[in-house]
Amino acid sequence: MTYEYVNETAIDENLKCSICNDPFQRPVHTQCDHTFCYACIAPWVSSNKSCPTCRSTISDIQELKAIKTRLVLNMLDSLPVKCKTCGSTNIERGNFEDHVKVCQRKSMHSYSCAAADVLCPWVGSKYQLSEHLSQCPYEQLRPVLSKILAENQQLTEQIAKLTEQFEKKAHKNEKQVQDKRSTITEVRPHVRTIVFASLLDQDKCGSVPDGFAGLNWRNARYTNEEKALAIRPRKRTERLSVFLHGYPCIIYNDWKNPLVISSTTHNFTLHACEVMSVHHPNETCTFNVIGRKNELPVYSKTISLQRDISQVIQFTSWTDVNKLELFIENSYFILTWIQVEQ
């Protein structure tokens, strides 16, 4: 059983292998810091003993190192895919193996009615098929339905022909408009993942300054691992898991207030972020996100978080906002990265 990617052209090129041109599977990197799928680079190294990108020498497959950065692996696992067997879509790639178990059971035990060609929607087990066929209304009405479907097909073909003619005219008109506007430069939006390591160039901890990553920040403080102990006083001897995942710097909400990210110059789209509860007295708590445009709330999302376990949150169609509020009532939380489109 296989899958295909949903809207593959929108996938960041940095997440694709330059050998197979697909998103990485079991990504590894070379000593010259180029990344490939293991299944793609291993046979290449065996035959060529070099990097296919820069031709640096690679003596042995053992020199290839697995990518362990949680940010990259989470982004790959969250790519939406479509099952080629059952047609289910928007399945996260990391969950596809779980889908396969259900999909295989359906494909092994489900049968369609013989009158499916005249639109009978019945689906059931092999043992129910005979009983259904004996009383299927679609099969009994087959002559009438076949005539209706044939006439419908003729109308569909006529509509398709008219649509084609219309699209040709529309394309011609669009080209004329584009020719007249050829001097206008279109600024295309771009998706970027904001991480916070560069803040450590200023100090080990402090307030996130306005203007960082082109945005304004309120109630937002950054810290390295050493200073992060202050926000989980009951477990000062334990390392925060986000630092085990390779993040040198995180931000958190100052004095347990809502963390506010905004822009006074342009609107943006929120795609995803990774957060973790660190101070709440309960094992699970409610994390809230509000998206505003000109101070009016236009989106909201509530997520259940487990304490000390980071979670990636996806936001579908959160477009055209200029302010975000992230909070857990009366508690600290950690933000390791956030992905926006401007």
TrEMBL record:
| InterPro entries in the cross-refs | Znf_RING, Znf_RING/FYVE/PHD, Znf_RING_CS
Give a GO molecular function annotation for the protein. Answer: zinc ion binding
Q: Which residues form the RING-type domain?
A: 17-55
Q: Which SUPFAM superfamilies match?
A: RING/U-box, TRAF domain-like
Q: Does the keyword Hydrolase apply?
A: no
Q: From the UniProt record, list the coiled-coil ranges.
A: 145-172
Gene3D superfamilies, per database record: Zinc/RING finger domain, C3HC4 (zinc finger) (3.30.40.10)
Q: Is this entry keyworded Zinc-finger?
A: yes
The cross-references to PROSITE patterns, in alphabetical order and at most eight, read:
ZF_RING_1, ZF_RING_2
Q: Which UniProt keywords apply?
A: Coiled coil, Metal-binding, Zinc, Zinc-finger
The protein in question is named RING-type domain-containing protein
